[in-house]
Amino acid sequence: MPEPARLTPLAVMLLATLREGDMHPYEMLRLLRDRRDDRLVPLQKGTIYHTIARLEREGLVAEVGVDRDGNRPERTTYRLLDAGRDAVDAWVRVELPQIDRPGDFRVALAEAHNLDRDDVVALLDQRRELLLASRELHREGLSRARDRAVPHQFMIEVERQAVLLDAELAWQDSLRHGLATGTLPWGVDGLPHHHERLHVSKETPE
């Protein structure tokens, strides 16, 4: 299994999508777009095909069939391997506690449902310690600047970051409470009804 750091956020999302069933890359692209996951990672057809090819070379996915519909180009269907499943979990475990890579954190948060509830709580607790330390650092900096009578216009960015850290901590504490108490449904078993992926019609053009 590759080291988690070798996976790009896009690779993580493609691997996680294959947990729902075997798909060809264009179906993955349509599914991610339907779910508006382009908010998290750029979704470009060429990059997705390139990424899937790399994941196959690294033993994280495997080709399971090739089909052709009329005159349309052949479509290769891929399956997630155990190594790919483990790689996603390992990447999420690395990125979920972090506070200095917000883009990666958003992807890790989006895929956190693949981990057990208690594991996510523990990872968020690690992140909370980092958030608290960062907030304290900002507060100390603001206090020193005010003691030195630093003009207000030079402190607005630090003030903004302090407010954002307060909001982040409040949001995360609410999330943790829902996970720890069980009031937040979690994982596939927590869905209110059987959830099926958004199928893409074979008539959709390449």
UniProtKB/TrEMBL annotation:
Residues 14-88 form the Transcription regulator PadR N-terminal domain. Signal peptide: none annotated. InterPro entries: Tscrpt_reg_PadR_N, WH-like_DNA-bd_sf, WH_DNA-bd_sf. It comes from the Bacteria. This is PadR family transcriptional regulator. The lineage of its organism: Bacteria, Bacillati, Actinomycetota, Actinomycetes, Micrococcales.
